[in-house]
Structures are given as C-alpha cells and as structure tokens.
Amino acid sequence: MNLKLKGLAFGTQEFNYDVDGEFFNAIAPCEVRSAHVAVTLQVTHEREDTFECVITCRGTLVIPCDRCLDDMEHIVDTDYELCVRQEGDEFDDSRDHLLVVPAGWRELDMAPIVRDTVLLTLPLVHTHASEEQCDSAMMERLGEHRALDLDDAEEPSENRAPDPRWAALRKFTENK
Q1: Gap between the Cα atoms of 149 and 50, Å rounded
Q2: What tens digit of pLDDT does each residue of 87-134 get?
Q3: For residues 53 and 43, is the Cβ–Cβ distance under 8 A?
C-alpha cells in the first residue's frame, strides 16, 4: 500500500485496496478477528511537493463483544483527509491532517495510516446492541458471578452488627 511520491503523475489518481483481518494484525496485534474493508485512496498531486489524499473506508470488522466475548460485527464507514508534504529532512506527524515527510523519500507506506483510520472507528466499549444478542451460555456464566444487583440487595437491617472494618476506618477520620 505504498504511495509513490516521486514519479506520481500530476492530477488525481485513485487506488483501491481490499483489506482483511491479517492486514490489521500484521503491524501489531489488535482485537480484529476478521475484516472485509474496501479502501479507496484518492490522491491529488498538483504541486511538486504536496499530495492531497482522501482515504475512504467502507466495510465490516469482526471484533469480540466486551460483554460475552463472542464475535460481533462493526460497520466501518469513514473518510479521512490528509495532506502529505515533502520538505526538509525530518518526519513530522504532530499535526492533524498534515504529514511532513523528508524531501528525499520516494514513497510513503499508507498501511499504518489506513489501519489507524479504520481502528479509530471502534467505540471504546463494543458490545452487542442488546444482551439477547450475546452468547447465552456466557451470559448465564456471568450471571453466576455477578455481584448483587441493586434491586436484589437487601435493605440494611438495624439488627445486623456493623462491619468492624468500617469502625476502624471511622477512628481515622474522627482523630483529625
């Protein structure tokens, strides 16, 4: 998925790629179990040292549900615009939507950029839309180990002796 910086014709070119689960795990292991994502890289080259890129990603990822660990499908539908500029001797990716690469580079590997673009579509917590879609055996097993729900908790009883650990902690706050 290399973008040729030297020798790329002026004007707009389009490159199409299909990426799978191996693509996402090749750079560094991640939670993508499988994938089918169509990637379109549209590059506009109008100045000798500047490349305007539009990355379009559409498809699906199969990732684990955080609740039941079963496979779930995540829809990918994202675009990312990036300006690649060749200048100087330093690589600089500190600014959003601008990537400065050394003037001597002949090509740029777009795979990490595409990978990050797609992975940033993942929510922090990814679960099935409802618990009914989760693996029933796993949900039953989780139910066995779940702490008491607030609805099921008993009301505090005046007959019950206070936990001595709390009494010891109260001494610390009273002495201040």
Answers
A1: 58
A2: 989 999 999 899 999 999 999 999 999 999 999 999 999 898 888 888
A3: yes
Q: Residue 107: which of 84, 127, 124 has the closest Cα? A: 84
Pairing assessment for the beta strands 92-95 and 107-109 based on DSSP bridges: unpaired
Alpha-carbon distance of 16 to 155, in angstroms, equals 62
DSSP letter string over 56-113? Answer: EEEEEEEEE-TTT--EEEEEEEEEEEEEEEE-SS--EEEETTEEEE-TT-SEEE-HHH
Q: Tokens representing 66?
A: 């955080």
How far, in Å, CA of 143 to CA of 17, rounded? 43
pTM of this prediction exceeds 0.85: no
47-95 pLDDT per residue, tens: 989 999 999 999 999 999 998 899 999 999 999 999 999 998 999 999 9
| Nearest alpha-carbon partner for 52 in 25, 75, 27, 80 | 80
SS3 state at 15: strand
